[in-house]
Each structure stands twice: as C-alpha cells, then as structure tokens.
Amino acid sequence: MVRLPRPCLEEAFGFMLDVTSEREPTRLVRNVVEGLPRLVASEVTTLSICDLGAGTRKVVSFPENAIGSQEQASFNRLIHEHPLVRFHSTHARGGACRISDCVPRAQFERQAIFGEYYARIGIDHVMAVPVIASSGLVMSYVLNRKGRDFSDVERGLMDQLRPALANLYRMAMMGAGASGAALAPGAQLTAREREVLPWVAAGKSDRQVAAILGVSVRTVQKHLENAYVKLGVENRTAAAMRFEEMGRPALSP
After folding, report:
1. pTM for the predicted model, two decimal places
2. How far is CA 149 from the centre of its chain?
3. For each of the chain's 253 residues, which pLDDT tens digit applies?
C-alpha cells in the first residue's frame, strides 16, 4: 500500500465532508464528479456507466460539454476494446487502475480507442476508480488528463477512497429509487431484470428461475448482479425487498 502524505489525506477528508453534505441524489453524484479534480488533477472527470451487454456507455461529465456525440458514438463502438473496461469487467476487485497499468503506452496509442476517442478529446492518460464491476456492467469514476500519467500516490489515494465512493453511489441510488427518479441514464431496470426479480422475491433459487424463464443459471446471476447495482443493494434478500417497495408485477409462469 502506498503511504499517502498528510496534506493529501486532509484534503481527501475535506472532500468527503463536502460531498456527503448533499442529500439530493443526482446532485450528490454531480458533486463527486466535480470535486474529484481537487484531489487529483483531471481535465475531464466522469461517472462512466458501461453496459457491456448493450455495448453502450452513459456519462455524467465535468465539464459537461467535454465529450461530443461523435466521440461518444466512437466509445460505444469500441467499448469492448477499452483496456480499463476489459480489466474491471474481469477483475471485480481490481481497484483503481490506470491505462498504463493495463497496456504499454506505445500499444495504447496504436489502439482505435485512442485514435478515435481519446486523441479527439485531447486526453492521453486515464485512471478509473470502479464503483461497481461485473462482467455485464462497469461503473467507474474516471479521471482523464493530458501530458502526464497519474502517479502511484494519486492511484493509492483513489483506491483508498474507492469504498467510500462506492457507498456514496449506492446511497444516491437508494435515494433516487425512493423518490422514483433515475439517478443517471441507464439506471433503470431492464425488461429481463424485471422478469427475474419477481421470482427472486417469491423465494425461487437461481436454478429455478432459470428453468422458469428458459435461460441459463449464469444468465440469471448476471441479471441479478446488474439489478443489485441499480437498486443500490448487495444481495438477493435486499433486492427482493427493494423490488417489493417499487411495486412488483404479477407472476406469470
């Protein structure tokens, strides 16, 4: 573990006090995105929500106009080639990670994601701090800058803050769910997730749900993993309770 200097820790403490004072869900996330650059210099900072099944990414960005529609379309098309998306989708506990931790600089610059996305928005160094990571859904706070890579101290700071940032996100999601508002684009349950959850709430096992819906057990588990994130919960019991609060549909086997 990297030893962090005292001023760095003090600034991080102040940052957490500031962002947690906000109770409105969408604003809480916006405060984190806008506040992270005060801890680690970043020219573009985002909450990046990558739906790997759909092959799309939704973002909350600062500055808000930093990513154009053409660049966003390029990212979506190349999402499965992104070094950090690939890493975090296969390493759920991977922690804060730089692109330079995944691939050599020269190799990254040869990739289409660099030429068609990062070069166009003027960025060449990236660090992602995962809020949630699974094979189907990767949500990360992402810091982007040009000219110099992120240091070990900066990565160490973000990694130590990561559990708190993840909890803040879950709190915001729970608040959004309670108010009936979506925290961010892509946070709504999919049709398939809404098919799986009523059976979970009825006490069915993953294997039983798979048999009812005619899908594999692993498919059921993937839908549940993604639903946990969107509902702001960590297990099937809490997911069932949250789904009940939302008013679950009738079962039709």
Report:
1. 0.74
2. 22
3. 788 889 899 999 999 999 888 877 778 889 999 999 999 999 999 999 888 877 889 899 999 989 999 999 999 999 999 999 999 999 978 899 999 999 999 999 999 999 999 999 999 999 999 987 877 778 899 999 999 999 999 999 999 999 999 878 766 665 554 443 444 434 578 888 888 988 887 778 899 999 888 899 999 999 998 888 777 777 777 777 777 666 555 455 5
DSSP assigned state of 80: G
- φ, ψ dihedrals at 141, nearest 5°: -85, 130
Per DSSP, the three-state class of 145 is: strand
Q: Three-class SS string for 39-55?
A: CCCCCEEEEEEEECCCC
Q: Which among 251, 246, 221 has a CA at the least distance from the CA of 236? A: 221
Residue for token pair 């102040």: 14
Using DSSP, state whether 98 is helix, strand or coil.
strand
User: Which residue is it, tokens 């992402």?
Assistant: 142
DSSP class of residue 3?
P
48 neighbors 142 (Cβ within 8 angstroms): yes
Structure tokens given for 154? 């900066």
Scan for tokens 């909890």, then name that residue: 167
Enumerate residues 6+ apart whose C-beta is below 8 A from 14. Answer: none
Helical H segments across the chain, by residue range: 6-20, 25-35, 69-77, 83-90, 99-102, 105-110, 112-113, 119-121, 152-179, 191-201, 206-213, 217-231, 236-246
Please give the Cα distance from 27 to 14 (Å, whole number).
18
What the block records as the tokens of 109 is 């610059």
DSSP-derived letter for residue 117 is: I
